[in-house]
Amino acid sequence: SLDKYSMEIHENKYTDYTQDKDITYTAPKMVKIDDTRVMLIWNKKNVKTNKSVLQYTIVDENGTKLSEIKTIEKMKIGDEEPIIYNNKVVWSRYRKGRLILNSIPLE
Q1: What is the helix (H) or strand (E) element at residue 5, kind and residue range?
Q2: pLDDT per residue as tens digits for the range 6-23
Q3: What angle do CA 85, 13, 52 make, to 5 degrees?
C-alpha cells in the first residue's frame, strides 16, 4: 500500500507463502465488507497432489490483517465476483454441469 503522506510503499503479505515450488496461489478476490474491512479470498494448490483449498483473511482499510488465514477444503473460487448477501460472502461456480453456491459467513 502507498502511504499518502510519506509516499512510501509498504508491502503487505497475506498468504502463508513459502518457497515451496509445489504450492501455487491464485490471484485474490477482494470483497468490501464495510467501509473499513475487506475480505481477501484465494485458492492454494499443491501441484504434486492436485489438492486445492480456499483460503481467506480480513484486512482493514490500511491493509492490516484483522484475522488469521482461514482454510476451507472442497471449496474454490474462480473468475466469479463474490457479493455480500444475508451477512455472508457469496459466489457461484459451475462444477461438472452443476451450479454451486458457496458462502462464507461474516463474523
Answers
A1: none
A2: 888 877 788 877 777 899
A3: 60
Q: How many CB atoms lie within 10 A of CB 40?
A: 19
What pLDDT is attached to residue 88? Answer: 96
Cβ pair 57, 69 in contact under 8 A:
yes
Q: Which three cell numbers stand for residue 25?
A: 496461489
pLDDT for position 41: 96
Q: Which pLDDT does position 10 carry in this prediction?
A: 76
Residue 82 burial by Cβ neighbours in a 10 Å radius (0-12, 13-18, 19+): buried
**Residue-level pLDDT at 87:** 95
d(CA 103, CA 6): 39
- What CA–CA distance (Å, rounded) separates 56 from 65? 11
Q: Give 40's Cβ-side CA count (13 Å radius).
A: 21
- Contact between residue 10 and residue 1 where contact means Cβ atoms under 8 Å apart: yes
Asked if residue 68 lies in contact with residue 47, where contact means CB atoms within 8 angstroms, the answer is no
